[in-house]
Amino acid sequence: MTDRNGPQDRRQPRRQDRDGEQAGAPGSRDAQDPAPAGAAVPPQRHEPRPGPGGDPAGASCGSGLPVAGVRAVRRAGVGLVRADRAVFAGMLGLNAAAAAAGLLAPWLLGRVVDTVVTGGGGVAAVDRLSLAVVACAVGQLLLTRWGRLLAHRFGERASARVRGQFTARALALPAATVERAGTGDLAARGTGDVPAVGAALRDVVPEVLVASLQALAVLAATLLLAPALGALGLVFLLGIPAAARWYLRRARAAYLAQGEAQSALAGTLAATAAGARTVEALGLQRRRAEAMEAVADSWVRSRERTLLLRSVLFPAVDVSYVLPVVAVLLAGGALARHGAVSLGTVVTCVLYLRQLSTPLDAVLQRMEALQGGLASFARVEGLAAAPASSATAGAEPEGGLVEVADVYFGYPGADRDVLRGVRLSVRPGERLAVVGPSGAGKSTLGRLLVGIDRPRSGEVTVGGAPVADLTPERLRRQVVLVTQEHHVFRAGVRDNLLLAAPDADDTRLLAALDAVGADWVAALPDGLGTELGAGRYEVDGAQAQQLALARVVLADPAVVVLDEATALLDPATARNAERALAAVLAGRTVVAIAHRLHTAHDADRVAVLEGGRITELGTHDALVAAGGPYAALWAAWHGTGDRPAGPPPGRVRPGTAG
Ligand SMILES: Nc1ncnc2c1ncn2[C@@H]1O[C@H](COP(=O)(O)OP(=O)(O)OP(=O)(O)O)[C@@H](O)[C@H]1O
Questions:
Q1: Positions of the region Disordered (predicted)?
Q2: Are 493 and 528 spatial neighbours (Cβ–Cβ below 8 Å)?
Q3: For domain 402-637, is the CATH number 3.40.50.300?
Q4: Which residue, judged by its Cα, is nearest atom 3 of ligand 1?
């Protein structure tokens, strides 16, 4: 390939690298972004990343979502190539042809030298050769342009495939898997790693492939033209892989440390800014300043370390470009003097070796970005190895009977069970309220009822089928959990509702809104078409909750678990929404995790959960009459009891527990 920019221009980007300012170059990513997406080892993520020493076969998991092993990443890469093999082959072919055209120009220049030296052919021959050089340059330009176009087309398509696959896999993940790994991990992969893979596929991979092809073509041509001179040049070029190897061995740890130091710096700064008033009120300025100084010192040291690495790599590479040229000139001159090679051949070899620095520079510059892209790809592909839903296509649930059979459950890592021998049977169409002190396990029971978590022992069945074994579609038709967290999508009211019932018409949507008392929608200028979200119509907490409840009405499941679903509504609205819901859900089973005791009052039966056990179960009137924990809770709620809090945990009233 002709080095059209000349040595000065070509060197410019690397000079910037040395100052750590060139995007995508070693050391610069972290400088520009404290949490670099797709950097080799983003500091804010704590899972192990597959590196050269990583798990080569499978996926490493730790406590977060898995990270794909080297083999899995390679398989996925091959899959992307296979999916677009025509474009990929075209890209390789065109770039190989461009590289070949680039080799012709130095060869022709060599012939010009020979023509001048031998005097054969005269000026006309030199003119012809010069015209051929121009033709080669134009040919190379056109081929390179088309080759790059195809390379970027391949990158864009592959990136779209990765994105689509990630979305599909993320949506198929069992809720418990996401919760256990932390939604932040999934979000970081979706917003950081997927774009990083996209950028790598669009820019880095094509660039490296093209540059590698060019370098190989130049080396092969040099060896073919003059094997002795080619071999000599190759020997002196070995300094480059040696320097790169030395650098790469140290770079991962050094950049990891730099990223961590940068994260610590940003974190300390953010914490100090966020807690400025507390810092001022408690006179903590000096301690915060010392903390800032400590993290800043560590950041500077980490920067110095990476700078040191770059300060070795780049001079070593620069020297390795010059040495082969000098060696070939010296040896070539001696050989030419003895007539072993022509002067033109020596000139061609030297031009080839000079030309080699362009693709090698490109590969070196992209090395770090490629490594970061691969690490991101491993995290994105890791989703394929995430524990899938254990759902089976077995039992088909029918009806709204809910049964909890001697269930024990504890969160991973906790030393004691949250639920301990819970037994409960809720008849189809019955409304059961679950009450109890904070931390008793009410929400946990709700999670088990809707299949988010699986009991450690015992079984939860809905409609006769174990919920943990239901496929997500069946599960959604059968049981729905409504919590205090209500997501309102940045879309119209209609679209927000259609999520629950894609086929519903406006009449049904309005009826569902009416059922939950969301009359504010009718008052909106665009009604169901009103766009919701920041900068548009912004719903408040109560309205978001009403939309969520309307979705439940539309989803029409056999069983509904309400986990403090109406807690954010003011008492009057909440009561209205619950009454409306009760009317709409007549004939369905409702398990309401209640913090307001009127919910319990309205329920058919009340279960009191204390310390992970059901200690009372019966109708509101019966439990009040029994004078036990529920009666005390009820009295306290009405302000007539002598105890302001709920019943003491762990008290079991024999004969009342279900
Ligand atoms: N994801 C989790 N991981 C670990 N422990 C958890 C998790 N969720 C809840 N716990 C613990 O399990 C116990 C029961 O929590 P749970 O939320 O089920 O109680 P609750 O009765 O609903 O309480 P509240 O009324 O305050 O919401 C608590 O000790 C809580 O700290």
A1: 1-62
A2: yes
A3: yes
A4: 411
Q: How is the chain split among helix, strand and coil, in percent rounded to 5?
A: 60, 10, 30
Cα of 418 to ligand 1 centre, how many Å? 8
The closest residue, in CA terms, to atom 7 on ligand 1 is 411
Instruction: Check: CB of residue 342 under 8 Å from CB of residue 114.
Output: yes
The CATH homologous superfamily for domain 40-222+362-388 is ABC transporter type 1, transmembrane domain (1.20.1560.10)
Q: Given its phi and psi angles, is residue 27 left (phi above 0), alpha (psi -120 to 50 degrees) or beta?
A: left
Probe ligand 1: pick from 178, 418, 450, 633, max atoms within 8 Å of CB?
Answer: 418
pLDDT for residue 26: 34
What are the structural domain ranges in the chain? Answer: 40-222+362-388, 227-340, 402-637
Q: CA torsion sign, 88 to 91 to 95 to 98?
A: positive
Q: Edge-to-edge strand order for the sheet containing 419-426?
A: 419-426, 402-409, 457-462, 465-466
Q: What averages of pLDDT result for each successive group of 10 residues across the chain (658 residues)?
A: 34 34 32 32 30 39 70 91 92 86 83 78 79 89 89 89 90 74 73 85 82 86 89 88 86 76 81 85 88 92 89 87 90 88 88 86 80 82 73 68 93 87 92 89 90 89 85 78 79 88 88 84 87 83 81 86 68 64 73 78 89 92 90 77 38 34
> Distance from the CA of 637 to the center of ligand 1, in angstroms?
22
Atom of ligand 1 lying closest to residue 447 CA: 18
In this structure, how many other beta carbons lie within 10 angstroms of the beta carbon of residue 193?
Answer: 26
User: How many A from CA of 488 to the centre of ligand 1?
Assistant: 25
Residue ranges around ligand 1 (CB below 6 Å): 411, 414, 418, 436, 438-444
CA of 441 from ligand 1 middle (Å) equals 6
